[in-house]
Amino acid sequence: MLSGIARTIGLARVVAFGLIAVAVIVRIIDPVPVQIVRNLIFDYYQQIQPREPGDFPVSILDIDDGSIAEIGQWPWPRTRFAELIDKARADGAAAIAFDVVFAEPDRLSPPSIAGDNPGLSPAIAEALRQQPENDTILALSIARGNVVVGQTNVRSAFAREINSGAIPSVPHALVGPDPAPFIMTLPELVQNLPALEAAADGRGLFSTRPDPDGVYRRLPLVALAGGELRLGLAPELLRIGTGSEPFVVRTNDAGIDGVVLARNLFETAGDGTVRPYLTASQPSRFVPAADLLADRMPTGRLNGHLVFVGTSAIGLGDYRATPLGVQMPGVEIHAQLMENMLSGTLLSRPNYAIAVELVAAFAICLLLIILTPIMKARILIVASLAFLSTCVVISFFMFQTNQVLLDASFPVMAALLTVICMATANYLREERLRREIRNAFRQYVSADLVNVLTENRGKLQLGGETRDLTLLFSDVRGFTAIAEGFRDNPAGLTRLMNRLMNSLSKAILDEKGTIDKFMGDAVMAFWNAPLDHPDHARAACRAALQMRDNVKDLNETRRAEAEEQFHVHRPMHVGIGIASGSCLVGNMGSDARFDYTAMGDPVNLASRLEGQTSFYGKTILISASTEAAVREDFAILELDRIRLKGKSHAETVFALMGGPEMRADPRYAPLRVANTKMLEAYRARDWDGALAALDEARDIGLALDPNLETHFDKYSDRVAAMQATPPPDSWDGVYDATSK
Strand 185-186 and strand 222-225: pairing? Predict the structure, then answer.
């Protein structure tokens, strides 16, 4: 049955539908890698367009490095915080929240100092004992109203021991099912000293949890701490600052729907968290604590403000990674959440988001599955880009205008998976076409070989001899795209390949080379067999340069033809690899069928060099043995030492740039000297020297041959990478090829 379906609608389409189903299942499961990709997209939106700073009645009393330097080392006496509260209240602060927890008694209280210093005189000790506790002074200041103390989750056994008391409730109501199965939960809680807790009007959580990649994207609007519902620090400060009314948690079957606070509904994720929409860090939010304590702050600076007390001091380590790609003091993140709540700019990830993303992904993939086999490649590319761009544009538009987060990464990745599947099917179809062309060209053999076999029929038998040969491999670049343009016209593709092979063959035969075989769009040839050719290395290089020029002329002719016929012109490019060395050459195969061919390491080397031409951005690459034989007659430049795939020994790779005319150019010799200096410095780990020589070589080389840009860029990138991450001691300067 499955085979019948595959024949009816196409195997590629069946496979594509299967991949879509797998992608949907993965999205529903939502593993961590999928979450990370989605979050990075949303982070990028904020980085492109962070929230515009506004004038909000939100301020931060900042325990910064300057304040610590002026007031004294941390921790400060609690009397300082009492003074901070009193002065902020006197300046008109509407409410104050602490992003600090006072879980232990103040060791700087006068009675504590008396008890910890037995060397004090009895009179001084007794006088100190008569002074009030610092914590009592702070409690009295807090009790004067509108102060929220901070609470956090338990982080140590000691903190657990000193906070073993009951956790008081904060006035609230529930509307809907129990939120416990969904809400962010803190099993235990670090509270402040009982006297401070009792004196405070509010208690807020400043605990946050990062996402798996360590970035803080979500803050709890409401959480369950030790069995009690608690607002986060910012919403609790808003509650106290607006009259201390109870908050309401609204739930449904999917979890928490929102929190009603200060007569406003703030929608949340199912676990009670929200996503703040951040601005870059704003100095205008901060008031150094020392300025307030020393009466340097402008009068009325805090009037009507909701004030957070926290720290930006580097040594206190309260910095968090943010979606903006920078770290930010934790207290400023809480302050930004308050600004979002006041301005209605919280980011929203609505419940319908997943459904929209799944429908969009399925619709785009279905269109691609239908259209790919029947559309031309260029139209399909444009259509695919249009579909995917539409997803991204809509996603960013919703973020930009409504602060709604819709994930474009899932539809895009699903569509790319579909395109890859369908393109692979097209590629296999084109490979079939290449095999047909390859079989047709097997009818062609070298004229020299025909002459030898005619004169000596004894050579028509299996066997061979060892000779020094120069091997040449040539292949067409981008053949798949060219073949795609002839999908409905295989005869036209055959005619085109005939024209190309004629151009390449002529250059080889003019230099007395033997064409071993045509392999679809590839040619293998060699020199010095079956006829002797003492100058075989130079002949191969001359043939390669002529092949390059012939292909260029063919492209110009085809361009003119395409313009006359109003067709799209797809230029053809070839890569050529040349190597010299000892090979076994002769008739290889069986008694029924054999070919006159060559075997040996130079054959493989020439093939692999051809495969690296696109990587190095050069048309012709030659081996060290070939370079040694022709260096006095051609313009040659060393590119690299490379360990080709499947080979254990490194090979030195050279670019054949031109003939005697280019070699005589006055720019060639300085280019070769500068290039050699660069390579020597690179292999000696002298990165600065390599860059200096690279700049010199680039200035000369690009004027002589613009195609050297790829060569220089590669070494620039390599040196930068080596400077950032120095290679191990075992590094030998050899590049390991990752493909053939």
Answer: parallel
Asked whether residue 441 carries a pLDDT value surpassing 60, the answer given is no
What pairs with residue 577 in β-bridges? 473, 621
CA distance 278 to 726: 37
Ramachandran category for residue 32: left, alpha or beta (phi over 0 → left; psi -120 to 50 → alpha):
alpha
Alpha-helical (H) ranges within 587-659 are 601-611, 613-616, 624-630
- Using pLDDT thresholds of 50, 70 and 90, give the confidence band for residue 233: very high
Burial class (CB in 10 A: 0-12, 13-18, 19+), 479: buried
User: How far is Cα 211 from Cα 41, in angstroms, rounded to an integer?
Assistant: 14
Strands 514-519 and 463-477: unpaired
What is the rounded distance in angstroms from the CA atom of residue 387 to the CA atom of residue 412?
Answer: 9
200 neighbors 162 (Cβ within 8 angstroms): no
CB 181 within 8 A of CB 287: no
Q: 500: burial class by Cβ within 10 Å (0-12, 13-18, 19+)?
A: buried
Enumerate the H helices of 353-402 as residue ranges. Answer: 353-371, 377-402
SS3 50: coil
Find, among 288, 290, 240, the residue nearest to 59 by Cα. 288
Q: Is 465 helix (H, G, I), strand (E, B) or coil?
A: strand
Residue 263 has what DSSP assignment?
T
Q: What is the pTM of this model?
A: 0.57
Look-up: residue for tokens 């680039």? 698
For residues 620 and 540, give the distance between their C-alpha atoms in angstroms, rounded to a whole number: 11
Hey, is 574 helix, strand or coil? Answer: strand
Q: Return d(Cα 579, Cα 577) in angstroms, integer.
A: 7
The number of beta carbons lying within 10 Å of the beta carbon of residue 571 is: 15
Instruction: Read off the amino acid at residue 85.
Output: I
Place of tokens 């930004």: 336
- pLDDT of 67 above 50: yes
Separation CA 499–CA 478 (nearest Å): 17
pLDDT higher than threshold 70 for residue 417: yes
* DSSP string over 273-324: EEB--PPPP-GGGEEEHHHHHTT-SPTTTTTT-EEEEEE--GGGT-EEE-TT
CB 701 within 8 A of CB 677: no
Q: For residue 267, what are the β-bridge partners?
A: 258
Q: What is the mean pLDDT of residues 369-386?
A: 76
Q: Please, are residues 251 and 260 in contact by the beta-carbon 8 Å criterion? A: no
Write the pLDDT tens digit of every residue in 267-280: 998 889 999 999 99
Place of tokens 């797998």: 22
DSSP H stretches of helix in 163-296: 194-199, 233-241, 289-293
Distance CA 375, CA 378 (A): 8
Long-range pairs, 690-695, Cβ under 8 A, ≥24: 690/715, 690/719, 691/716, 691/719, 694/719
Buried b / exposed e over 135-173, threshold 16 CB at 10 Å, is bbbbbebbeeebbbbbbbbbeeeebeeebeeebeebebe
55: helix, strand or coil: coil
Q: Please give the sequence-ordered ranges of beta strands (E in DSSP) within 99-254, or none if there are none.
A: 147-153, 172-175, 185-186, 189-190, 202-205, 219-220, 222-225, 228-231, 247-252
Tell me if residue 245 falls in helix, strand or coil: coil
Cβ(300)–Cβ(92) under 8 Å?
A: yes
Q: Which residues contact 330 (CB under 8 A, 6 or more apart)?
A: 99, 206, 208, 310, 318, 319, 320
Average model confidence (pLDDT) across the chain: 85
% of the chain residues with pLDDT over 90: 50
Contacts 24+ apart (CB under 8 A), 108-114: 108/75, 108/77, 108/78, 108/134, 109/77, 109/78, 109/133, 109/134, 109/135, 110/134
Nearest Cα residue to 433 out of 496, 515, 507, 363: 496
Q: What is the CA radius of gyration of the chain?
A: 38
